Amino acid sequence: xxxxxxxxxxxxxxxxxxxxxxxxxxxxxxxxxxxxxxxxxxxxxxxxxxxxxxxxxxxxxxxxxxxxxxxxxxxxxxxxxxxxxxxxxxxxxxxxxxxxxxxxxxxxxxxxxxxxxxxxxxxxxxxxxxxxxxxxxxxxxxxxxxxxxxxxxxxxxxxxxxxxxxxxxxxxxxxxxxxxxxxxxxxxxxxxxxxxxx
Amino acid sequence: xxxxxxxxxxxxxxxxxxxxxxxxxxxxxxxxxxxxxxxxxxxxxxxxxxxxxxxxxxxxxxxxxxxxxxxxxxxxxxxxxxxxxxxxxxxxxxxxxxxxxxxxxxxxxxxxxxxxxxxxxxxxxxxxxxxxxxxxxxxxxxxxxxxxxxxxxxxxxxxxxxxxxxxxxxxxxxxxxxxxxxxxxxxxxxxxxxxxxxxxxxxxxxxxxxxxxxxxxxx
Lengths: 198, 219
Hints:
Number of strands of chain A: 4
Largest sheet of chain A: 2 strands, parallel
CATH topology of the largest domain in chain A: Nitrile Hydratase, Chain A
CATH architecture of the largest domain in chain A: Alpha-Beta Complex
Radius of gyration of chain B: 20 Å
Low-confidence stretches of chain B: none
Distance between the termini of chain A: 47 Å
Strand content of chain B: 15-25%
CATH superfamily of the largest domain in chain B: Nitrile hydratase, beta subunit
Number of domains of chain B: 2
Number of domains of chain A: 2
Largest interface: A-B, 75 and 89 residues
Radius of gyration of chain A: 19 Å
Order of helices and strands of chain B: HHHHHEEHEHEE
Strand content of chain A: 5-15%
CATH architecture of the largest domain in chain B: Orthogonal Bundle
Oligomer: heterodimer
Number of strands of chain B: 5
Number of helices of chain A: 11
Largest sheet of chain B: 5 strands, antiparallel
Number of helices of chain B: 7
Helix content of chain A: 40-55%
Order of helices and strands of chain A: HHHHHEEHHHHEEHH
């Protein structure tokens, strides 16, 4: 509740326990159902899904084309779908264009391919600055871009979710799909890093 | 509404650090609050847009004090109390009891879930109307000011851009959040130049953002 008392706040861990106690007592939730829900996001849904999508796009030109034309469909082909993935648009980085994704109004994020957003994505500094000074912020986060690269910032303000298809690093021609997937990071698929050959 | 959540372009927040070893849930309660937050929409008979508006309605201190999962927790409580599933003060009373401070649970209240028509699962909808705009059209974001929910951030208001793409139609969060109907609309990705948004000294960049048809007007 909107409680503006800033000195006598109850610890959120206790309030969480209290809410769970009230809801289970009323038969509205079961603790095992909460466990299952949590475990799904800890173990099954995460950036390893997006990494498989990227690695396939790097090695299969037809799939890449399909992915860029119909992100949701191509991603579903690999078995990834669900909440916060109703319509996924894949945007491709190149030598000339660098894409980066933010949600200034909350923290919208493509859960089926990246899992839950990391703390930095939800940080007010990221949400406020990425739309206003993306080059400076990317540089502070460790990614320096040449002046002639166009920076394209996507503010996910409706129900479309964006996944960045990073550039395949040099020197990876002899790697297979699984080895490539192991190189792909969450940060590269949001657009705050590049993929390196390891 | 012009709330703490509308962060695009705010200044003074400092820098961003990436923790490469961040776990999915840093603390046990984060996962519990996330799960109950997600379930609170169904339990309160509301929807995703009402949930987002619930986050926006938190006092700015509460929005920030316990981070992302802190606001999910507070929002779940807000929706459940608004719908009469829990009484005001029920969570606090239970928490005080758990901390060894005996207090009485408040009496149950009458359920008061919103009654409204839903057009199906999710947010995307098929509509027959012709889109008002096409890729390449110049459009201006209207100067919309509302105390309610909207997905048009303040930093776009009154600014002129170019339609980049037509996206699938979707229900309008501005009315759906308040249980006033879905009003499905076309959605466009609109491109703005950084100088149009932040002035002539802005860093060179392109901003693309998804906007509902009723947020836009032809220039």
